[in-house]
Write a structure and sequence with these properties.
Largest sheet: 10 strands, mixed
Number of domains: 2
CATH architecture of the largest domain: 3 Solenoid
CATH class of the largest domain: Mainly Beta
Strand content: 25-35%
Structural class: alpha/beta
Distance between the termini: 53 Å
Strand order of the largest sheet: 9-12-15-20-23-26-29-32-34-35
Length: 319
């Protein structure tokens, strides 16, 4: 994708110039009347945008640059009051609209080459699935329609991937979980993990994630879950529909995460904990007890966020 000729570095060109009004008809939102017929040639970050470009404005810290730029602005509705009228495309879901614009610019995703990859004879892989080089799909795995298994990912047996699941490069799904039993004289025996993994439709598993198999029942990622890179999901965990997990977070065995939970980066959740629907967990929090629905927590041990901030303020005053 190239930048528009003569424009500053950065950004991507539209296939053909479009008016802001045309873009709004496709993606929603409200255009300032003075800008409705203005042509957009390119989508660019604010710091690289110029006349004829469209720049996203989603964060208050960029307000100064947004006021100074000559570009048109795709503005999150919560920030509309920060800018004078004239160059705004105000949208209640501005990031979602931007994603739609970039999908159109990028065009259809290139198909992954399917060889060399290993697919077990007893694995069931939908004809519309893509399997990247170096990927391994073992016997008794099921890969649904339109899935993408990126290079060097491994899908073990007893794994069931629903439609449109994406498994990132180097991710491992369905390896036996970390379970050990202790016997006479200190003998240690691995606990077989035979429950497998169920991944429902439209889930994304980021690169280098590990999703462990359950012991007797499956570890489960419900529909629409999105995992960033290097997330670990231990045996018997259930992550509810629509939950988003940032990078390097980990869930110990048998935790239950509700639907539409937001989990920040490097969060740790102890075993057998339940996190309620719609909760939010701040980055680097350590969760060792249940979290009610809709609550935002932070710190270690994770507590309600404002309580944690007050505690930190008292601690810092003592120094």
């Amino acid at each position: 994708m190239s930048t528009r000729e003569g424009g500053p570095e950065g950004g991507v060109a539209l296939a053909a110039p479009m008016t802001l009004a045309e873009l709004a008809r496709l993606h929603g939102g409200v255009i300032d009347e003075a800008a409705r017929d203005s042509l957009v040639h390119r989508i660019a970050p604010i710091e690289a945008a110029g006349e004829g470009d469209l720049a996203p404005f989603f964060a208050y810290e960029h307000a100064g640059a947004a006021r100074e730029t000559r570009a048109f602005l795709l503005v999150d509705a919560t920030l509309a009051k920060e800018l004078p009228e004239g160059r705004r495309w105000v949208h209640p879901h501005a990031a979602y609209a931007l994603a739609g614009l970039l999908e159109a610019v990028g065009g259809p995703e290139a198909r992954l080459p399917s060889r060399p990859a290993f697919v077990g004879e007893a694995a069931r892989v939908a004809e519309t699935a893509q399997v990247g080089p170096g990927a391994v799909i073992l016997d008794d795995a099921v890969v649904g329609a339109d899935c993408v298994i990126e290079p060097n990912a491994v899908v073990y047996g007893r794994v069931r991937l629903g439609a449109r699941v994406r498994v990132g490069a180097g991710a491992i799904v369905g390896r036996p979980g970390f379970g050990w039993a202790f016997g006479p004289g200190g003998a240690v025996r691995r606990m077989p993990q035979l429950g497998g993994v169920v991944v429902e439709e439209d889930v994304e598993i980021g690169p280098l994630c590990t999703i462990d198999a359950g012991t007797l029942s499956p570890t489960r990622l419900e529909r629409g879950v999105k995992l960033d890179a290097q997330v670990h999901v231990a045996h018997n965990v259930v992550i509810g529909a629509g939950t988003l997990v940032a990078a390097q977070s980990g869930f110990a065995g048998s935790t239950r995460i509700g639907a539409r939970v937001f989990v920040g980066g490097q969060v740790g959740v102890a075993d057998h904990v339940t996190v309620g629907e719609g909760a939010r967990i701040a980055a680097k929090a350590g969760v060792i007890g249940d979290i009610p629905s809709g609550v935002t927590v932070a710190g270690y041990p994770a507590v309600e966020r404002m309580r944690w901030l007050r505690g930190m303020a008292r601690l810092l005053r003592k120094r």
